[in-house]
């Protein structure tokens, strides 16, 4: 309670802050994720203590002490040379198809309510949880209706992905193969209606005949 009052008092009265400066813990030399604190910087607008920091990539920036401690700021925000990697491309494409209505695949992701978890809004967290993608493997959601998060994702080959989804029915029409759900969505009908139509046309909708 006293801490809160003290905080409100000091932040609302920047001039009073200097009186209490002696109470600020010195962060010089400490590391927070990719940041190393160099020295004290000028206070922010509201009197919040800030520190000059250097990222592991060499970029310098002034960061609020609070952001360092609670992990809101972990690095300069740069991709640290990762932007050309498959991991980064996978991440940025995942974000795009879930958040950008203009993205070509949005209707199957963001448009269906599929989200990227809060933690994975940062590339570095995604990389820490998933590691680099193994050769020939792509990002796969175990539950196709679930979000993008650590517990629902794995790196898998296309074949593994199809096998994991036991109820996936592959249908080849006019030389194109895609799942029943994808066909139904493309045609703007339900899966049941799709199966009905296939049966009516003499195509049996069972895994054995559709592969
Ligand atoms: Zn950096």
- How would you sum up the major sheet? 4 strands, antiparallel
Total of helices: 9
Helix content: 25-40%
- Average pLDDT across residues? 83
> Which cofactors or ions or other ligands sit in this model?
zinc ion
Measured on Cα atoms, how large is the radius of gyration?
26 Å
Low-confidence regions: 1-6, 207-211
What general outline do the C-alpha atoms trace? elongated
Beta percentage is: 15-25%
What does the secondary structure layout of this molecule look like, with pairings?
Blueprint (H helix, E strand, L loop, with lengths): L1 H11 L1 H4 L13 E2 L2 E7 L8 E6 L4 E5 H6 L15 H14 L23 H8 L7 E4 L11 E4 L1 H7 L5 E4 L2 E4 H8 L3 H10 L6 H4 L1
Antiparallel strand pairs: 1-2, 2-3, 3-4, 5-6, 7-8
Helix pairs in contact: 7-8
Bound molecules: zinc ion (ZN).
Notable characteristics:
4-stranded antiparallel β-sheet; 9 helices; disordered C terminus; binds zinc ion
Question: How would you portray this structure in words?
Answer:
This protein has 211 residues and is an alpha+beta fold. The protein folds into 3 domains: 2-70, no CATH class; 86-164, no CATH class; 170-210. Helix content is 34%, strand content 17%. It contains 9 helices and 8 strands. A 4-stranded antiparallel β-sheet has the order 1-2-3-4. Helix 7 packs across helix 8 (191-200). The longest helix is centred in the middle third of the chain and has 14 residues, at 86-99. The chain is elongated, with a radius of gyration of 26 Å. The chain binds zinc ion. Zinc ion is lined by residues 34, 55, 57, 59, 75-76, 78, 80.
């Amino acid at each position: 309670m006293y801490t809160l009052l003290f905080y409100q008092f000091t932040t609302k009265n920047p001039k009073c802050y200097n009186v209490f400066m002696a109470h600020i813990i010195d962060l010089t030399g400490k590391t927070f994720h990719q940041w190393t604190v160099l020295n004290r910087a000028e206070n922010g607008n509201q009197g919040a203590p800030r520190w000059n920091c250097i990222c592991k990539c060499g970029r310098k920036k002034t960061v609020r002490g609070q952001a360092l401690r609670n992990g809101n700021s972990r690095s300069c925000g740069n991709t640290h040379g990762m932007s050309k990697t498959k991991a980064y491309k996978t991440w940025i494409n995942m974000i795009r198809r879930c958040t950008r209505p203009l993205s070509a695949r949005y209707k199957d992701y963001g448009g269906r309510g599929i989200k990227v978890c809060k933690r994975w809004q940062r590339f570095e967290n995604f990389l820490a949880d998933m590691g680099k993608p193994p050769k020939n493997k792509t990002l796969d959601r175990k539950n196709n209706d679930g979000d993008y998060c650590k517990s629902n994702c794995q790196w898998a080959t296309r074949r593994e992905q199809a096998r994991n989804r036991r109820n996936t029915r592959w249908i080849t029409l006019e030389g194109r193969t895609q799942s029943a759900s994808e066909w139904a969505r493309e045609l703007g009908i339900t899966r049941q209606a799709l199966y009905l139509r296939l049966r009516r046309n003499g195509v049996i909708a069972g895994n054995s005949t559709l592969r």
